[in-house]
Task: structure prediction
Amino acid sequence: MTNADYSDIAYEVIGSVARVSHNRPDRRNAEGTALLDQLDDALSRAAADQDIRVVIVGGKGDHFSAGHDVKEAMGRPDVVETRYAYEEQHYLGYCLRLWDFPKPTIAQVQGACIAGGFMVANMCDLVVASEEAYFSDPVCGTLAAAATEVLIHPWVLGLRTAKDFLYTGRKMFAEEAHRIGMVNRVFSRASLEAETLALASHIAKAPPFAMKMLKRSLNRTADMQGFRNAIQAHFDTHELCHTTQEYKDVRASGLAASIGRTKELAAK
Result:
């Protein structure tokens, strides 16, 4: 694909940095099929470009991403085999490719970073957020699913905080996320883009092969602690939830009811 082929993401090159942004601001950057496919394509493009040394993953408009495009998802056939194949590729597969991306990645987060957006942001190497940014994964309470498809949460939050976060479905604002180490740096909304680019440009000065090897060793450390096996095991657990009566009842109640439950949880 070229820039002209992208409808749901924006691809920009600034020196040795590529910025790949969710670009559905009218839908709070909900992650539909086209957006996810284009995001994955853009990352492959940046990986192949020897002039690109760092990638920023962001979102146009007021929000990083409100998460899965639930309206689109509810329109897909509710067939176990079909859903499993779709989510294995678009959620688990794309997230692991982002985790394994051979160059440093930085999530640039403003506004909402929810569910699927939380997964994408936290598969990046660093997370930088604006002061008003918040994170949430309410899908246990709203959709009867055991968290999102990719359970990155205990790895970036710690086990007890992950339980608190997921059991309640609450919002975690940038200051708290920074305090516990999930977010690396917090900036004002007005300076977020410039500060993230400055950080990326600084990292881009390092020798690229050495940086690639450093990232590989750091990720292997997580793998030796069980990261990849845990992520893959949870995916099957998540898929099991779609076969339960709880899930069927939630789906039958419709999209409006799910949105209402999300708003109720977010208010607490």
The CA atoms of residues 14 and 197 lie 9 Å apart. Residues 80-99 form the longest helix (20 residues). The first strand starts at residue 9 and ends at 14. The chain has one domain: 3-191+208-266.
